[in-house]
Write a sequence for this structure.
């Protein structure tokens, strides 16, 4: 069996694939924080979602004095309850967000808020 030397075109395609692979790996690493922690990337995404969707009622620091909204730093460590509340609303005071936020965004919100909880 005789092996043929790859053509210039084949070599160019292989080089392009290798370059794209390196670029993709760099992009995945950039999605994590500078230390390579994917949880921190999720917390950061949740922080951004919170700022744009939640802070107007719940306050910029997870609490809004003088309103009916709870101090989110003191919510129970109950992810299922949190997700249900966000999706369905609560007591006709908090509107449902299930049609506005997808599961990934709600999960990122949980990651952010639970990272800021008071023990």
């Amino acid at each position: 069996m005789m092996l043929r030397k790859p053509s210039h075109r084949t070599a160019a395609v292989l080089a392009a694939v290798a370059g794209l692979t390196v670029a993709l790996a760099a992009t995945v690493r950039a999605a994590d924080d500078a230390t390579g922690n994917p949880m921190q990337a999720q917390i950061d995404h949740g922080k951004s979602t919170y700022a744009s969707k939640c802070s107007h009622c719940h306050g910029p620091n997870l609490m809004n004095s003088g309103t009916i909204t709870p101090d989110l730093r003191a919510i129970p460590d109950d992810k299922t309850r949190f997700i249900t509340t966000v999706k369905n609303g609560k007591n006709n005071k908090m509107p449902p967000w299930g049609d506005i936020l997808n599961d990934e965004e709600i999960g990122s919100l949980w990651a952010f808020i639970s990272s800021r909880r008071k023990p």
Observations:
- The helical segments are 8-31, 38-53, 55-58, 79-88, 103-115.
- The chain is about 55% helix and 0% strand.
- The two ends are 69 Å apart (CA to CA).
- The mean pLDDT is 80.
